[in-house]
Sequence to fold (215 residues):
Amino acid sequence: MKLFIDTANLDEIVKTDNMGIICGVTTNPTLLSREGHNPREMAAKIADRVDGPVSYEAVLLDAEGMVKEGKEIAAMAPNMVVKVPMTTEGLKAIKRLAELGIKTNATLIFNENQALLAARAGATYVSIFIGRLVDRGVDAIGITRNIRMIFDTNDMDTEIIAASIRNTEQVTQCAIAGAHIATVPYRVLMEMVEHPLTTAGIEKFMEDWKKVSDK
Ligand code: G3P
Fold:
């Protein structure tokens, strides 16, 4: 499973990119609003800094508007991906953008049928919102496993992005369930680095090393 970072914060993107752990970025209007800058300028900076895909959400809700926005987003940088909400208008926009060779990320996916429809319309990615489902007591990991099975059975190229990740355990479970990508907040990525036995192991090695280092 590949890892993207779910943020619009350039500092977090640079830090994780320097560690070699991410190969893409997903943003949304909420994440961009937190940064308080012009969203398109922010996205252009992000796309310039990373090699991989950068998802940026269309905010008009009619197909025609989303296609117009999508063309503008795609023109910002070669690695831009247009995030399109899972609606009838969104599906029309995904189809049109796919015909134009523009990559799309169908967002706000909550079940297998929505994922199937988005993939059939031509979405490059479908983003299933794991955390928001789990918050409501739904088996989001089971749904992810089913979507992967449906895509594989039908030879569909659309990749599954596990989004709305709340903790490290969800990352592991999404990887086992067959998500192609997890887009993970910075805090969770940093928690994935750590294990108390790693910290204790380093301390012990350093302590023992001091006993012989000046001999
Ligand atoms: O980018 C979409 C998704 O990751 C949002 O997550 O935490 O708002 O449910 P969250």
